[in-house]
Specification:
Two copies of one chain form a homodimer.
Chain A: E1 2-8, H1 10-14, H2 20-32, E2 35-42, H3 46-59, E3 62-66, H4 74-84, E4 89-91, H5 93-105, H6 112-115, E5 119-121, E6 125-127, E7 136-141, E8 144-149, H7 153-171, E9 176-185, H8 189-195, H9 197-201, E10 207-214, E11 217-226, H10 229-247, E12 251-254, H11 259-270, E13 274-278, H12 284-290, E14 299-305, H13 308-315, H14 319-325, H15 330-344, E15 348-354, E16 369-376, E17 379-386, H16 391-411
Parallel strand pairs in A: 1-2, 1-3, 3-8, 13-14, 13-15
Antiparallel strand pairs in A: 4-5, 6-7, 7-8, 9-11, 9-12, 10-11, 15-16, 16-17
Helix pairs in contact in A: 2-7, 3-4, 11-16
């Protein structure tokens, strides 16, 4: 089964808006077993929209249209669709009722202009927009399905979730498809693939494995197709267990879990507090920890010691250590760690010191050399890593590796 | 003059890749005075590419094609273009020479497979790819221009910059267009627009002003069209001076200036050092400062005092202050500021304390309430701001406002 996507709107053709809707729609439809034949972006012109519709329906059974339903241009898209299907615009009482309630609730008079929001092509089924006043439209004509939605991403997504995706599953006899995400941190895609070589070789024919890497993380997506959803669920559970057996150490969560939240929950459960002592990351690890709402329950603070004198004065790193072994060394991060824990009176900490570049690298310690210490005085894990990329990437990867070290430390 | 963009590649139709190339191309072409008629994304199939080319050339004088030139699928796109123009693939000696040098330089034997990289449709002009081995192709047929480029964004951009954009300017008699960007921070788009009301009303007819907002920043783009570039430059200088007169306080830079770099340069020039004391931003201000390479010249470190006990113990905030006025108060950030400057021995500092939410707000101090102090003990600026948005937005906006306060402080 094939679909086409038409996006309507000048902002994409001018380049001020990146078309993220199409990628989102394409992913969701592919996950349902519907493949995208083509994506066409056109301007808010009747002729142009008509010709795109004509082209799209040549090869697709499903045509998704986004955009062109805003308050300033809703007439053109609705009118164009009505004309395309030789239908009239008519007032939909159920739409009018909801809009009236919406405006009444806000103490606004429903103007003649707003009243037209309830006028849709007579041959469509109106689709409620939970996040806005421009409704979606579902057409079944010529043996095909056409869906028109607003271009505002959250409105479109909400309409898709609530109505269009369920309706598509019902309308078309799509194969049963099940997806499951396994989330890993601080392991390269190639290393993970190596660990899963046997797993992949033995994967049943109705399963697919995708690696989705993103700055220190690799998301694994297992997809299974079949006829019976219950059977698929059982099969999926079995395959997930197999992935766990091969790569358990690197898995921090599943589906929509958030890395920093997972670690935060572990700290909160153990009733433990943490601090960070950062050099090359310049506060970025603290920032990642505090992106989590409620992190004040376990995070007390940090000392960002960019200058060596701050490492010495604030964290108690011995000048001798810095002189003999350098600011980027095992002994320095050890002393930074014990220093910050003592100073902020926490149960544990993270300390990092490294060379984020582009300057400051040497033959012995090139750009990307980072020392990381995690734990506390009596129980400490220290690692040296060599990270690739530019300054921004090195800072980001350092934070992911350090937080993953903390997660594993907490597992013990 | 109208152009069409064709993007070739399954990854866009599967939804794993967002098509950012088209927006980039659309913006660049619009800035040259070429408008985009249509964007079509198709799969790596000959028939599909052919039909997209046919559709595109119906309305456009320029057809830009990206993607489908990778090592695994270069034959299909090149072969398709050759067939489309009834041309043969032939070896281009100048391309072969460059490729041979490239591989020799890396000590790699030029294989038969790699040799095909030098084979292009006979009717094209080869365009050097400064960032890769797949060359671009420029065709002039049927009174139109067709350009094929790889889909890898940095390769495509580099080919556009070096060859395609200059060649387009030469080939087509485009109007003279001049653009200039004026960069502002920590002022809302609506407030800026208010300050520029008179300016806009008096803007000459050949000028346009665009507001491009992005999380605490508004970039102003002035665009001028005419026939004489020298004249435009003079006009532009005059208009830029007028913007400066009306909004000078909010302008931190022009064209490609980077906010944190501009502030870093000011600190370096004045030979001054800085530290931050952060509560609600949890290290994010320090992170922004240290994204700049070489920031160690002026940035010494930070104390991230999330817990009140850290504010007291490490920054010397009086427990009495916190008890009487709260951790989010004028007096607290003042004491945080003097505390961190003393502790890290810097010339000045930034201190912030606020409620990033979603919890922790009260009627008196709702989520988004932030106190910011900038300067040093003898010369301090303190402000309370009420910031909109979710936790992430409040953290980001706090950093921009605080850094902008620092910039203005340094101007004095």
């Amino acid at each position: 089964m094939k679909a086409a996507i038409i996006t309507i709107g000048d902002e994409i053709l001018i380049g001020t808006t990146i078309d993220t809707n199409s990628a989102w729609l394409a992913e969701k439809l592919n996950l349902l077993g519907i493949s995208i034949y083509e994506i066409i972006s056109v301007s808010d012109e009747k002729f142009h929209i008509m010709s795109a519709l004509k082209r799209a329906e040549e090869h697709a059974q499903l045509i998704l249209i986004t955009g062109g339903l805003g308050p300033t241009n809703d007439d053109i898209t609705k009118k164009t669709l009505a004309d395309y299907f030789n239908a009239e615009l008519k007032l939909f009482p159920e739409v009018y009722k909801v809009l009236k309630e919406y405006f009444d609730h806000r103490g606004i008079q429903l103007s003649e202009k707003n009243r037209t929001l309830a006028e849709l092509p007579a041959n469509c089924t109106a689709i409620r927009n939970p996040k806005g006043t421009a409704w979606g439209m579902w057409f079944e004509e010529r043996g095909k399905v056409y869906v028109s939605m607003p271009g505002v991403p959250w409105e479109m997504k909400s309409i898709m979730h609530d109505t269009v995706l369920p309706k598509l599953k019902q309308k078309f006899s799509l194969p049963a498809i099940l997806h499951y995400h396994i989330l890993t941190a601080a392991i390269a895609e190639s290393q993970l693939a190596e660990k899963l070589t046997v797993f992949e070789a033995q994967l049943p024919a109705n399963f697919k494995l995708a690696y989705l890497p993103d700055m220190g993380f690799v998301k694994l997506r297992l997809s299974a197709t079949g006829n019976n959803m219950n059977e698929l669920r059982q099969q999926m559970n079995h395959q997930v267990e197999r992935v766990k057996a091969d790569a358990s150490k690197h898995i921090y969560g599943f589906e929509n879990d958030i890395f920093e939240q997972v670690i935060g929950n572990m700290l909160a459960e153990k009733n433990m507090t943490i601090a960070t002592a950062e050099s090359c990351t310049g506060g970025y690890i603290a920032h990642r920890i505090t992106t989590v709402a409620g992190s004040s329950a376990y995070y007390k603070g940090s000392v960002i010691a960019y200058a060596n004198e701050v490492k010495t004065a604030e964290l108690g790193v011995s000048p001798h250590t810095i002189q003999q072994q350098g600011a980027v060394s095992e002994q320095t991060v050890k002393e930074m760690l014990t220093g910050v824990i003592k100073k902020l009176n926490t149960d544990m900490g993270i300390a990092v010191s490294g060379i984020a570049g582009p300057d400051g690298g040497t033959d012995e310690k090139p750009v990307g050399t980072v020392w990381i210490a995690v734990g506390n005085e009596t129980n400490m894990v220290v690692r040296q890593v060599q990270l690739p990329g530019n300054r921004k990437q090195i800072i980001t990867l350092t934070a992911v590796v350090a937080l993953e070290m903390l997660r594993r430390f907490l597992l013990k």
